[in-house]
Amino acid sequence: PVLASADLIDVTFEFQKNDDRNESVGMHAPHSSPDFMCPVKLAASIVRRVHSYRDSTDDSPINLMQKADGIIFQITSKSIRTQIRTTVTLIAPKTLAFGPDEVGTHSICSGGAMALNLVDATLSMSPH
Predict the structure, then answer these.
(1) Taking the model in full, what pTM does it have?
(2) Which pLDDT tens digit goes with each residue over 29-57?
(3) How many CB atoms within 10 Å of residue 47?
(4) Lower CB count within 10 Å: N or C terminus of the chain?
């Protein structure tokens, strides 16, 4: 019930690659944003999904997924990087003009930014 009416999210990054620990970032729900674009509503949806898993708690990480066979696993940057590199290998480096060793998790952000640029999207960032 509380998650459904949330208008603020506070995310704690326990460990980052730059050695920052327990950095907390807060964000308010934008008033004009539809629910499917609202970071607070999306986070609440993720928390509800994780809570639906067997043995989950309020301390369960949000990067958990459940396979069709019921096995719960954690998605890591290493597993994402492996998937991206496998995909590049399957497509063939000659087709793409770059190889699997030249891509990583940064490629997701780069690809998203390029897609927004190609559709001439205008974004505005506002402080929270």
Answers:
(1) 0.64
(2) 776 667 777 778 888 888 899 999 999 99
(3) 17
(4) N
